[in-house]
Amino acid sequence: MAFDYDLFVIGGGSGGVRAARVAAQEGAKVALAEEERYGGTCVIRGCVPKKLMVFASEYGDMVDDAQAYGWDIKPGAFDWDVFRGKLYAELDRLENVYRGILKNNGVDTYDQRAKIADAHTVELTDGTRKTAKHILLAMGGRPVKPGIPGDELGITSNDIFHLEKLPESILIVGGGYIASEFAGILNGLGVNVTQYYRGAQILRGFDDEARGLVSDEMCQKGINLHLGTNIVRMEKEGDKIRVVATNGDENLFDQVMFATGRVPNADDMGLEEVGVELGRKGQVVVDDYSQTAVPSIYAVGDVTDRVNLTPVAIREGMAFVETVFKGNPTKPDHELIPTAIFTQPEMGTVGLSEEDAREQEPIEVYATSFKPMQQSFAGRSERVLMKLVVSQKTRKVLGCHIVAPGAGEMIQLAGIAVKMGATKEDFDRTVAVHPTMSEEIVTMKSPTRTG
Ligand code: NDP
Q: What is the mean pLDDT of the chain?
């Protein structure tokens, strides 16, 4: 049977665009449909604008630090309009880069929603049908609100970049990556930030000592963090929002932002009708090769809810092309993925937390927490953490956790060593780079704890 395309990709985010490009470079005839902006969550309403906001939010403290170092400069005010204008221009530029990648590689693009009609056919919003030998689902995910009375008054991370003006006060609900990152960003931009998290400590799943330090430092910086607290209901009061909390508190905020998780964009796509299995969270269920229950349909990225990170979606997209278009069956590798949480302070992590490692086998923990030179000289009391979790038996470093300015940059490099299976003694053999914060990672001689 002759198909219109060898590959039809649904979703123009990081995973979909990478798979489309690489497949096209292999000679495949490829099409891609995107109903919103090219670039997807990461580029348009996630990692990229978020990181630019992190940068913007850090300049206030830098002015204070510069004064402490002898600079005669005066703090100014942050102008949201100026920043937002530049941000929009940058996102336009990046979207054009993504469109250009597809165009230059001969990928046909359809700026509309596509749904699955059968195992080899997609139907576009305008009713057009296109057939393809393979279909790749890469629709990503979207934020969800918790479904409490009045939650329509709140915003999500999708909306934060489009605010007409920065609120004077905001309540952020949630304790995950997005909630904790935006608490730091908005606090740095001068917004009065309150954060409610229903659990005992933010950043559940990460190393306890590391997330404990992040949480302490966030409070030190002025974030009003309430643990064990959630919203019961919210209602409009003048131009503010009245929030009733589970601890009985009632407060008025200018804005409420929900960062209470994300769901896969797999609903209303005709997937189950053709036999693609969906999981409990609505995610597309795939095997180790990203293949769904329908052999011609594959899925990568957040829509599969495996490890919801852009570089992982890209790896999954490339492994899919290896498997399907290069005759080289390849499983994406989900082991030992380094990651950074752009809280203030930043946290970088790879491998097992102390708690998870301890469940697995006897370990040694090497940890040091100290005031780094640059901030200490400027009169700041902030602490950083460098931590290694080591297997007593194999001596391998099972986990590395860093809380420090630039932890994201550091963990990328430490991640190579951990991925290679480096032992504690390999770290010890490496000469320190002095004076740096990260030198502590190779100079910790005696274990802090064993067990
Ligand atoms: P997460 O799943 O990480 O966090 C959701 C938070 O909301 C949790 O603290 C959760 O609490 C809480 N929550 C869930 N439901 C409710 C509810 N009904 N009421 C109150 N609180 C609730 O989601 P995020 O949206 O923060 O991030 C999604 C994913 O995006 C991340 O897992 C990550 O993979 C990715 N991401 C990565 C970033 C990076 O690499 N720097 C940055 C941003 C996102 P509980 O812990 O109790 O379940």
A: 97
